[in-house]
């Protein structure tokens, strides 16, 4: 059981999970956090941000004693920021509900943030449930333009101090897509001002589902060029039509 909303204990780390009808995945994500918490020396809370959930997601999250927040906006930046606003931890980790962290993930976060040398960072060792030529090509067509615009950053799961998250304004709520890459770039720049590095955890794996490919096909992204353009057009990430297709509508979750 995690530290609940009613606890008065000092909390070291808050894990933020945005959820939209995640009853198939949320327990696996929470179980992985529980396992990773065993090697973490401080107290941990998990903040689950419910976004228009109509299934058993809330029931499952409450059974783990998670802190529950509600935010119905079709905007991942708004959803994640709402979770951080409710968080009480000194450190913040943001993970997706269909991802699972390795057992040594939180101990790696603890080691890097405790060193004082890192502003925060992302994950370098991300493993998908399966791979195919279509999945690889889809990832490349999305990630390459982002790398060109945002430089050497890592995403997947973010970790940083809450004070630094707030100092850069959290996730940009004007962006509906690529908000994760934008956040990483701004966090990296903030770290440079403080003489700290943007880190990438490579010694702990993040496992993520292929549910979008399973539902829409491994080449499904190429049947929706508007989504690709949503990533490519200047990296502004403000195309509501592309964002709705990619994240918020008809995801068969």
From TrEMBL:
Q: Where in the cell is it found?
A: Cell membrane
User: Can you tell me where the transmembrane regions are?
Assistant: 131-148
Cited InterPro entries: Glyco_trans_2-like, Nucleotide-diphossugar_trans
Pathway(s) per entry:
Carotenoid biosynthesis; staphyloxanthin biosynthesis; staphyloxanthin from farnesyl diphosphate: step 4/5
Q: Which residues form the Glycosyltransferase 2-like domain?
A: 14-126
Q: Primary place of residence?
A: membrane
Q: Does the keyword Hydrolase apply?
A: no
KW Cell membrane (keyword) present? yes
Q: Which SUPFAM superfamilies match?
A: Nucleotide-diphospho-sugar transferases
UniProt keyword annotations, A-Z: Carotenoid biosynthesis, Cell membrane, Glycosyltransferase, Membrane, Transferase, Transmembrane, Transmembrane helix
Q: Which is a Pfam family this sequence falls into?
A: Glycos_transf_2
What the record says about family reads: Belongs to the glycosyltransferase 2 family. CrtQ subfamily.
- Any idea what job this protein has? Catalyzes the glycosylation of 4,4'-diaponeurosporenoate, i.e. the esterification of glucose at the C1'' position with the carboxyl group of 4,4'-diaponeurosporenic acid, to form glycosyl-4,4'-diaponeurosporenoate. This is a step in the biosynthesis of staphyloxanthin, an orange pigment present in most staphylococci strains.
Q: What is this protein called?
A: 4,4'-diaponeurosporenoate glycosyltransferase
- Organism per entry: Paenibacillus terricola
The uppermost taxa in this organism's lineage are: Bacteria, Bacillati, Bacillota, Bacilli, Bacillales
């Amino acid at each position: 059981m995690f530290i609940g909303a009613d606890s008065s204990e000092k909390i070291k780390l808050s894990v933020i999970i945005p959820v939209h009808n995640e009853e198939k995945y949320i327990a696996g994500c929470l179980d992985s956090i529980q396992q990773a918490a065993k090697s973490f020396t401080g107290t941990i809370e998990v903040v689950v941000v419910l976004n228009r959930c109509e299934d058993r997601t809330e029931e499952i999250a409450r059974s783990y004693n998670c802190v529950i927040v509600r935010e119905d906006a079709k905007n991942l930046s708004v959803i994640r920021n709402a979770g951080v606003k409710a968080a009480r931890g000194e450190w913040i980790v943001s993970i997706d509900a269909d991802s699972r962290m390795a057992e040594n993930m939180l101990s790696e976060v603890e080691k890097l943030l405790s060193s004082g040398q890192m502003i925060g960072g992302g994950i370098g060792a991300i493993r998908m449930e399966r791979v195919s030529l279509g999945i690889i090509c889809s990832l490349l067509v999305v990630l390459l333009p982002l790398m060109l615009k945002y430089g050497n950053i890592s995403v997947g799961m973010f970790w940083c101090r809450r004070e630094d998250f707030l100092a850069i304004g959290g996730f940009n709520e004007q962006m509906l897509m690529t908000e994760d890459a934008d956040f990483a770039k701004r966090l990296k720049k903030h770290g440079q001002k403080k003489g700290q590095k943007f880190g990438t955890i490579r010694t702990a794996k993040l496992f993520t589902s292929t549910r979008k490919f399973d539902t829409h096909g491994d080449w499904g992204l190429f049947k929706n060029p508007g989504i690709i353009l949503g990533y490519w057009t200047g990296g502004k990430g403000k195309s509501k039509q592309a964002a709705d297709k990619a994240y918020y509508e008809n995801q068969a979750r």
